[in-house]
């Protein structure tokens, strides 16, 4: 990930702030999260069903996820603010 942000004129004084956080999800919450994404919503029904079935399969068979009550989903949010000269 790039640490430095540069913008052309007329922008000056670029500030960057990064926030790292973790969302803790139940298995069903992960399925709901995937189902809420636009790529899933706009997929044909057959593709959407296959995608969600694959998530369920991953949750049931992955050694770190099978028989667990949930998972940690890490995020990084990068904010950039620039002054207009």
Layout of secondary structure:
Blueprint lengths: L10 E15 L1 H10 L1 H4 L3 H17 L9 E14 L1
Antiparallel strand pairs: 1-2
General shape: elongated
Q: Fraction of residues in helices? A: 25-40%
- Our measurement of the CA-to-CA distance between the termini, rounded to an integer number of angstroms, reads 27 Å
How many strand units? 2
Poorly predicted regions: none
How much is the average pLDDT? 93
What is the string of SSEs from the N terminus onward? Answer: EHHHE
| Structural class category | alpha+beta
Distinct helical segment count: 3
Strand order of the largest sheet: 1-2
> What value does the Rg take, in angstroms?
19 Å
- Outline the biggest β-sheet: 2 strands, antiparallel
Number of domains: 1
Amount of beta strand: 25-35%
Can you put this structure into words, describing what you see?
There is one protein chain. The protein has helices at residues 27-36, 38-41, 45-61, and strands at 11-25, 71-84. With 85 residues, the protein is an alpha+beta fold. The longest helix is centred in the middle third of the chain and has 17 residues, at 45-61. It comes from Mycobacterium tuberculosis.
